[in-house]
Write a structure and sequence with these properties.
The chain has 260 residues and is α/β, with parallel strands linked by helices. Strand 2, helix 2 and strand 3 form a beta-alpha-beta unit. 48% of the residues lie in helices and 13% in strands. The protein has a seven-stranded parallel sheet with strand order 3-2-1-4-5-6-7, sandwiched between helices. The chain binds nicotinamide-adenine-dinucleotide. Nicotinamide-adenine-dinucleotide binds next to helix 1, helix 4 and helix 6.
Length: 260
């Protein structure tokens, strides 16, 4: 079965990994609903690029902290395209600080965007996938869904939660040709990572260069940052017919980080 012509909703796809997945999916002929916080000019540029691959692409500005807006994202996708075949839960933010100094507001925002939004999108999309008898849900977790690092309490808690939610989702829809899996990237040089270099340097009293080489790439045995194209390729594989029995699991794309 070809994935050409399918419809994908990708949360947080105006930047970084989500954008990379949107580009990879559009090249594979998948229609796309992008989402994220971005200037109109940025959104227009992304839509023009995706449409240039010959697919339909629209933007919805749902804030992933707002369940009502999330429901509207899925409803709008279904209205525009007839259904939603693929859901990529990717939107995420990060905050690096010791627990005693961790702002309550940052804990609430991270758990809402990185974890709870995944519940709200999945809840809204499952009836559409059950009705069509096919679906693929891919949650972008993290190596931090499997192991911890200091100073990332909310992120690590949320990402571990995403992996648990992935398993439950998989079991609840296993007989309807709907799979749900998590991808666990190591470090990818996106705006999310660039922003945390300074905070990590401060929290650990080291230089930004030491953060890159001694903290980030220290964990990645390949000594390479993961590229967004590799994550798009992994997501495309999970959408393929060959992956129909891969469900309720996580695929690490982390240069060996969690093997050690
Ligand atoms: P990024 O900052 O480049 O992109 C994040 C996206 O989420 C953007 O489109 C942003 O607009 C969107 N977003 C943020 N808050 C939102 C909100 N309230 N509502 C809607 N959209 C919102 O980050 P990234 O590195 O591409 O991260 C994407 C995902 O990958 C995240 O879930 C992150 O935790 C995960 N991840 C990233 C890395 C990495 O090294 N970059 C590693 C593992 C996992």
């Amino acid at each position: 079965m070809s994935i050409k012509g399918k419809v994908a909703v990708i949360t947080g796809s105006t930047s970084g990994i989500g954008l990379g997945i949107a580009q990879g999916f559009a090249r594979a002929g998948i229609n796309i609903v992008i989402n994220g916080i971005a200037e109109q000019a940025v959104v227009d540029g992304i839509l023009a690029e995706l449409q240039g691959y010959g697919v339909k692409a629209i933007y919805h500005n749902a804030d992933m902290t707002k369940p009502e807006q999330i429901r509207d994202l899925i409803a709008t996708a279904a209205k525009e395209f007839g259904t939603v075949d693929i859901l990529i839960n990717n939107a995420g933010i990060q905050k690096v600080a010791p627990i005693e100094e961790f702002p309550d507001s940052a804990w609430d925002a991270i758990t809402a965007i990185n974890l709870s939004s995944t519940f709200h999108t999945t809840k809204a999309v499952l009836p559409l996938m059950r009705a069509s008898g096919w679906g693929r849900i891919i949650n972008i977790a993290s190596a931090h869904g499997l192991v911890a690092s200091p100073f990332k309490s909310a992120y690590v808690a949320a990402k571990h939660g995403v992996i648990g939610f992935t398993k439950t989702t998989a079991l609840e829809c296993a007989e309807q040709n709907i799979t749900c899996n998590a991808i666990c990237p190591g470090y990818v040089m996106t705006p999310l990572v660039e922003k945390q270099i300074a905070d990590t340097a401060a929290a650990r009293s080291i230089t930004p260069e030491q953060v890159k080489n001694d903290v980030m790439l220290k964990a990645q045995w390949t000594k390479k940052f993961v590229e967004v194209e590799e994550l798009a390729g992994t997501a495309l594989f999970l959408c393929s017919q060959h992956a129909q029995n891969i469900t309720g699991t996580n695929i690490s794309v982390d240069g060996g980080w969690t093997a050690a």
